[in-house]
Amino acid sequence: MNSQIKKETGLIYVIQKHLASRLHYDLRLEEGGVLKSWALPKEPPVTGAEKRLAVKVEDHPLGYENFEGFIPEGEYGAGRVEIWDRGFYQPLHQDENIKEILILGQKLKGVYTLVRIKDRQKGQENLWIFFRNKNQEKAGLKDEKNTNGKTGQKDK
Predict the structure, then answer these.
(1) pLDDT tens figures, 10-67
(2) Which stretches does DSSP call E strand in the chain?
(3) Where are the domains positioned within the chain?
(4) Given phi > 0 = left and psi -120 to 50 = alpha, else beta, which region is 71?
(5) 77: left (phi over 0), alpha (psi -120 to 50) or beta
(6) What angle do CA 43, 54, 17 make, to 5 degrees?
(7) Is the CB of residue 149 less than 8 Å from the CB of residue 46?
């Protein structure tokens, strides 16, 4: 990877696998002194062909990116939490409706985007789509362009 990012200066990125009332994955990105958080109902996307719903949830304090264990019954989010992926990220483009980021995780690597969608019927603004960009040139991944993080095979 031809990235100019040093891990020591990157922002925190983590995905926690959370077996609560339903299995989901919590995407957490360091921003403004907290971990901005989105719940993904399915495993995070590893190819440019996959898109995932991401529901914006409450921010978490810095330090929570290291949490693994059990949240006791009766507490919000009760169930098992384990780290699925971790690393660092760099914002590439950001406004109130889109976040394009370069993820440098142990499993996920490359340019990913979160796009806010609005449920016009319910007036909800916490719904986003999370996906791996098909064009990975911003990440300097010319040789790995559109490569699947799991198999190493080129995306179709």
Answers:
(1) 899 999 999 998 999 999 999 999 999 999 999 999 988 899 999 999 999 999 999 9
(2) 11-19, 23-31, 34-40, 51-61, 69-71, 79-95, 98-105, 109-119, 124-132
(3) 10-139
(4) beta
(5) left
(6) 40
(7) yes
